[in-house]
Amino acid sequence: xxxxxxxxxxxxxxxxxxxxxxxxxxxxxxxxxxxxxxxxxxxxxxxxxxxxxxxxxxxxxxxxxxxxxxxxxxxxxxxxxxxxxxxxxxxxxxxxxxxxxxxxxxxxxxxxxxxxxxxxxxxxxxxxxxxxxxxxxxxxxxxxxxxxxxxxxxxxxxxxxxxxxxxxxxxxxxxxxxxxxxxxxxxxxxxxxxxxxxxxxxxxxxxxxxxxxxxxxxxxxxxxxxxxxxxxxxxxxxxxxxxxxxxxxxxxxxxxxxxxxxxxxxxxxxxxxxxxxxxxxxxxxxxxxxxxxxxxxxxxxxxxxxxxxxxxxxxxxxxxxxxxxxxxxxxxxxxxxxxxxxxxxxxxxxxxxxxxxxxxxxxxxxxxxxxxxxxxxxxxxxxxxxxxxxxxxxxxxxxxxxxxxxxxx
Length: 409
Hints:
- This protein is of the alpha/beta class and 409 residues long.
- The protein folds into 2 domains: 67-133, no CATH class; 138-408, Glycoside hydrolase/deacetylase (TIM Barrel), CATH 3.20.20.
- It has 13 helices and 16 strands.
- It has helices at 20-47, 49-52, 99-108, 171-174, 198-207, 223-232, 260-264, 269-275, 290-293, 296-309, 324-331, 348-365, 376-389; strands at residues 67-69, 71-72, 87-88, 92-93, 130-132, 153-156, 159-162, 185-194, 213-216, 237-243, 283-288, 312-315, 334-337, 340-341, 367-373, 394-396.
- The strands form 4 sheets. Strands 8, 9, 10, 11, 12, 13, 14, 15 and 16 form a 9-stranded parallel β-sheet that branches.
- Helix 5 (198-207) packs parallel to helix 13 (376-389), helix 10 (296-309) crosses helix 11 and helix 12 packs across helix 13 (376-389).
């Protein structure tokens, strides 16, 4: 009976104590092995050139300011088994690098390093800064659109001429207008002849949608005033360049015509006169010029000069013999070519048919460019067509958005 009243568990034997010493030894040995492995890895990395000599680029908060990278990869005097060393100059924001900073970057590079040439066709040096940037970040702010960028101006006897900035920026980059949308079928419309008629110029600037590109004639009047009003309204600008036509001088675009002979010989006095009449434009468009655009030496020389200055060339599409596209490509310049001339006659019905042709061309290719003159009837027809075309999925964009830019590749 005693077993019935005995508390549960009191008859159990004593538990044997655990033997801790033997189980702690493997854990301690594992810790020592791990420490030796990490220490050995660090020692190896510090003694190998490929790890010891690498400079790690620090990240910079880039947007919206573009960055310039100066880098060189010199071969070692005696190639080690671990691989060649790499040296690099620090990142620097574009627009703030002085000549001294550029010289220091070049001096830090090895003379045997590869040559980076920028812009295309220009002489470069080893370790030369190579720009890496989003073209959209270079555009002027809307509040500054009517003010020329001093870094993009060259002072000459003919006035203020467009030129690439020392940091590589181009008038094409800075004065371009961002399209409202890159989606859908895109059309660019260029209306030229502005500045000749004050009434017609006012009508085009104030009644056309800002997406329409405006082209000014260098022989026009009050160009500075109209440039400012057009830029404040949101328009992208071109300058029309009088160029030698077939039958010149009996057929002439006016004074200061750039002839094929002068262009081929590099005599650009008339070109500089035209360029100096206006500022804040992304490029030039031919005014007449079938004789010059069909002359290979002349067109190659002109394309090279425009590329050097960072300007777009728009071919109005009136000459089937034009060599402008191939010349611009060879020079590394920006090129655009018109698909349809919209107002060969001042007939509203005919202009509307041409605009419909432009729309069909854009749907077939994804984009198309039309050109017109600043006649009242042309301006009214374009404005009416644009109000309807958007509902059909047509996006009118500045001409720069449809240009072929080799530097943006």
